Amino acid sequence: MASTIFLPKSFLASCLLLLRSLCLSLSDQYRTNPKLQKGYPRPKPVHDKLLEQIQKYQDKTIVLDLEGALFRSNLTFPYFMVIALEAGSVIRGIILLCIYPFTCLLNKDMAIRVFTIISFCGLKEEEVIRVGRAVLPKHLLEDVGMEGLEMISCKIQPCSIICVTRMPRVMVETFVKEYVKGMEVVVGKEVKTVGGYYTGLVMEERRLEGKLGLHYDEFVGFGCSGMRSQHQLFSFCKDFYFVDDAEKRTWHALQRDKYLKPLVFHDGRLAIRPTPFAALAMYMWLPLGILLSLIRSLVFVFFPYNISIFIGAFFGMKTRVSFEALVNQCNNADNKCGNNSGKLFICNHRTLLDPIYISAVLNKQRISAVTYSVSRITEKISPIKTVRLTRNREEDKRRMETLLKQGDLVICPEGTTCREPYLLRFSSLFAEVADEVYPVALKTKAGMFYGTSTGLFKFLDHFYFLMNPWPEYKVKFLEKMSTRLIDGKSCTGFEATNHVQSEIGRVLGFGLTKLTRKDKYLLLAGNEGFV
Fold first, then answer.
1. Is 325 exposed, middle or buried (0-12, 13-18, 19+ CB in 10 A)?
2. CA-CA distance, 65 to 68, in Å (whole number)?
3. Fewer beta carbons under 10 A from the terminal one: N or C of the chain?
4. Most distant CA pair in the chain: distance in Å?
5. DSSP output for 366-407
6. β-bridge mates for residue 385, sequence order
7. How far apart are the first and last CA of the chain?
8. How far is 297 from 462, CA to CA, in rounded Å?
9. Closest C-alpha among 385, 387, 360 to residue 303
10. pLDDT in tens, 21-55
11. 3-class state of residue 2 by DSSP
């Protein structure tokens, strides 16, 4: 006997809505953009057209499709994943990753709305703004195509640029205004807030003609041939040029020396660009990474240094040491290296593990380190002695002199870590403590997670660094330097400090800056760095 199955009307309506979205997604770009319809001649690469009519656009305003004309990839998922992880939580990131395959069935605008709901809903407005200011610029800069940026800033030289993005404006505004020349207005999606918290719902676009004083024929549009530029501003463009998809695949990543301004500071834990596959790999690695981090930490705490380096290498830690200069100085000195002569080691600051690595490679347990404001938990689990400075110059000097009488001392005169290849301004206090110092140049490599932060859970910093599949440290001991003489001539403490900084920077190939710990924390965290 045949049976009849009755389906709820709501279920049928949902199926019809999903089918309609799929049909729109498949036919969207061809139905709404006549330049992409079959039979229409494919546009020439944008560079060729601009070179032909370069004088025509000197006084024009450009409406720039950010994802289409500036980035090498059209994928926006990684930036929403950064918001989900850095402003939200690991669980929020998992939800976003799980929903991604389903968003591939939707059109681009609908997919971004779904990403926005998952990434933004329930987050504090000030926290998302902080991530947009301190975290996202690094990830966005890594996706900028050198050819795309040069086309806008060098070849055309328009009077102004209006940047249009499919993402929420808060995600890209800081990056656009600080790292792209000529950007005056950023137009993107606005996310609704209630009581200082984001709802995740996108506000409807408002007409911008009156607000921006727009008139037809005054604008030139730039986008990508593989994407549909659907913002209302493009309707005011008399000419619209497409960057060919094949051409974008040949674009080169923007080199660091081509940045509009140096990217010295940025925050966040992710060292990778969290594409869907990279995010999946990260989550699959996470359980093993946590276990390895604990094992690697315990190795340095409970095992002697003469074997901890080798045990760490067995568990994937890479350490490269160059201390020929130190050995030669010890061989030529009256006293041998094995005694407690109170050497003062000056190093640049990459992670909280810097003094521990120096102590381990020298195989000395009685090395001390001074700290500025690390967490109490970090001080408790440190395998070497740490002494907290007070920021009172005379008291800090007295504490350093006392530690030097007890044995060797490691000082990081930058006062805070710097991830990028730059050196912050060195404090000159160490030049008043000792007549001779031993500079140490440090370089680290983090493949998946950064081991530094300006957030609340700073005691997890070294755990994050040790969670990387292959954490790497390079330690190079330099020639002993005097704090009283430079090339046989008397010098001040400030001159000696600058000399030490420049020598470490020369060996590492790092740029020298006058920025300080205060500058870093004011930019990234909105405070002066007290923990």
1. middle
2. 5
3. N
4. 107
5. --EEEESS--HHHHHH-SSEEEE--S-HHHHHHHHHHHHHHS
6. 368
7. 76
8. 9
9. 360
10. 444 444 444 333 433 333 333 344 444 555 455 44
11. coil
